[in-house]
């Protein structure tokens, strides 16, 4: 499985939940592009950050019968996470010792309330682990100008 990031390790890019969901679910209109993005990133020469909270959210979304009919069976979804994490490029990102401080700064500067707190959590993990760019189609991340974001689907 992918290595857990140490505070000094640098993940060049990180992948957000929506990119992983689109890559996984073949019926999504963005599937082909997202699958190519994920496959190329994990086959490349640079580290790719996978936040644990993103992976948890991926599991919750693709296995939900309220979102997908039929949902992905949990065993298949976990196998998908195993596959991504097994890439030699994968670096698993978690909350660092600086997490609360970074999160506090992002929450204040981004005027974050409610559900966007989850995005601030992901942004804090990315910043604390040296991610240079987050690949996402979620515009909420633009609240955090210290984190470079790019939508690879456009």
Q: How many structurally independent domains?
A: 1
Coarse structural class: alpha/beta
Along the chain, the helix and strand elements come as: EEHHEHHEHHEE
Q: Treating each run of at least 4 consecutive H or I residues as one helix, how many helices?
A: 6
What Rg, in angstroms, do the CA atoms define? 15 Å
Which fold name fills CATH's third level, the topology? Rossmann fold
Reading off the top of the CATH hierarchy, the class is best stated as Alpha Beta
Tell me what you see in this structure:
The chain is an alpha/beta fold. Helices cover 44% and strands 12% of the residues. The protein is built from 6 helices and 6 strands; from the N terminus they run ββααβααβααββ. It has helices spanning 17-24, 31-43, 52-62, 74-85, 99-109, 116-128; strands at 3-4, 13-15, 48-51, 90-93, 133-135, 149-150. It has a 6-stranded parallel beta sheet with strand order 1-4-3-2-5-6, with helices on both faces. Helix 3 (52-62) runs antiparallel to helix 4 (74-85) and helix 5 (99-109) packs across helix 6 (116-128). It is globular and about 40 Å long. The termini are far apart. The model has no long low-confidence stretch (mean pLDDT 93).
């Amino acid at each position: 499985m992918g290595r857990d990031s140490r505070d000094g390790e640098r993940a060049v890019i990180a992948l957000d939940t929506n990119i992983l969901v689109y890559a996984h679910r073949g019926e999504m209109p963005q599937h082909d592009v997202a699958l190519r993005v994920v496959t190329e990133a994990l086959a490349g020469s640079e580290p790719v950050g996978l936040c644990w909270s993103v992976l948890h959210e991926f599991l919750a979304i693709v296995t939900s019968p309220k979102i997908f009919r039929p949902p992905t069976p949990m065993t298949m979804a976990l196998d998908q996470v195993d596959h991504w994490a097994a890439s030699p490029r994968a670096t698993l990102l978690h909350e660092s010792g600086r997490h609360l401080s970074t999160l506090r700064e992002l929450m204040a500067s981004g005027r974050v309330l409610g559900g966007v707190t989850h995005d601030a959590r992901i942004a804090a993990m990315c910043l604390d682990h040296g991610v240079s760019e987050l690949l996402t189609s979620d515009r909420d991340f633009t609240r955090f100008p210290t984190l470079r974001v790019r939508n690879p689907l456009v």
